[in-house]
Write a structure and sequence with these properties.
Layout lengths: L2 H11 L20 E3 L2 E3 L1 E5 L2 E4 H13 L8 H21 L6 H19 L2 H8 L3 H26 L6 H9 L8 E2 L2 E9 L5 H20 L4 H8 L3 H4 L8 E2 L5 H8 L11 E3 L2 E11 L2 E9 L5 H20 L4 H8 L27 E2 L5 H7 L11 E4 L5 E12 L2 E2 L2 H31 L2 E3 L18
Helix pairs in contact: 2-3, 3-6, 4-6, 7-15
Length: about 475
Amino acid sequence: MAKTNSYLVFLFLGIFFSSACSCFAQSSNAQKPITKGKVVDRIIWLVGDEPILFSDVEYQKMRLQSENANIHGDLNCIIPEQMAVQMLFLAQAEIDSLTVDESMINRQVDGYLKNLVTQVGSKEKLEEYFGKSYSQIVDDQKRIFKNNAIAGNMRDNIVKDVTVSPSEIRKYFSSIPTDSLPYINTKVEVQVIVRKPEVRLAEIDRIKSRLREYSEEINSGKSSFSTLARLYSEDKRTAINGGEYGFVSRSTLEPEFARVVFNMSTGQKVSPIIETQEVYHIVQVIEKRGELINFRHILLRPRVTAEALEVEKSRLDSVAMKINSGTISFDEAVERYSTDDNTINNHGLMVNKDYNSSLVGSSEFLLDELPQDISRAIATLKTGELSQAFISYSDNGTQQVMLVKLYSRSEAHRANLQQDFQTIKELALAEKKQKTIDEWIRDKQKTTFVEIAPEYRNCNFHYPNWLTNK
């Protein structure tokens, strides 16, 4: 999560605000600076009895700048206003007893900070940038993510009953000037037949032997787990961090892997060899936090021979000839020949798993969302045509052979109701939901005490009635 969009969500749905309380408008002392650690601080907004501090706004500005977020407008106006909006959501959420999954928040924070530390180079550099200890940054992020989630749940609750009728969809579409109609990028649906070459037992024995050697080196104290992971692990994401995976829950791991790892004790030297989806691991547990676990692992993949790949390639070329001659249908070929558990029960149709995509969960892909080898294979195909068999890589990095069929293709175009009714419906529904949210915020403005420091009152607010009738 694309980075700019994720931080727009952060900015407009949930920005950390301090839980410190003071009375901005009830005495002249309220405008005197207060000391927060070594920082001279002051209250710049008060929403109900919740303050927005100058330091909170500055912290969020630094956060956005650290991610190069492209936000237009005056952040000194945008940030405190959206803090105030979030306070309205949080206050109502408390009344409605809305809660969030704390373990999910912890996972999100751990993942976010791990990526941020990787970007800046070290925890020390992160502390220097924000002027806070790492533990303070962790606490801040937990409040941010928790408030984001609660506010998001409150927004969903407000609009849960909002729907759009066909006439509203048509009215919405007709209101859009022709040159402003959404541009729909090329979308495709792809069917695949996958063959996984047989791995020789000698190769599996070789991989296991290497992992046993690493275990012996670690257990004897000859080498550290982190050093060997950096040198030899084939999981590129974790190898750079000494094999450290980061905090995850049991449900995010493969069952056979989770069973072993969650039964290990913190500080136990090395796990037995674990097999998952044709790759092999050894593991060392770093820390457990309730239902979450952090561990290091070294991953090795068995190699398949060129001869084994050619055998499967020839087999799929023969399958393609049968399909093209009408001897067998593609769907029948999937059932008979494919070894891909992800698509075999879906007639070979791939499912979009890109969570940054608006098409996630569907069988449609934008061209740049497909794996590059599949995108190249369908580049010159017409709907219904097959590619030649080709070598590709599975999600776990092992080599396999694929045959691809272009199931459907929708060329790039300006949106129209005939082709893009569902897309237009989603846009119309999003607009109606936003109007509902806007009306709810304006109603809450009327009944919520708000005070704003003089230097912030001249902002061009998105919701202009913060000080009306106060």
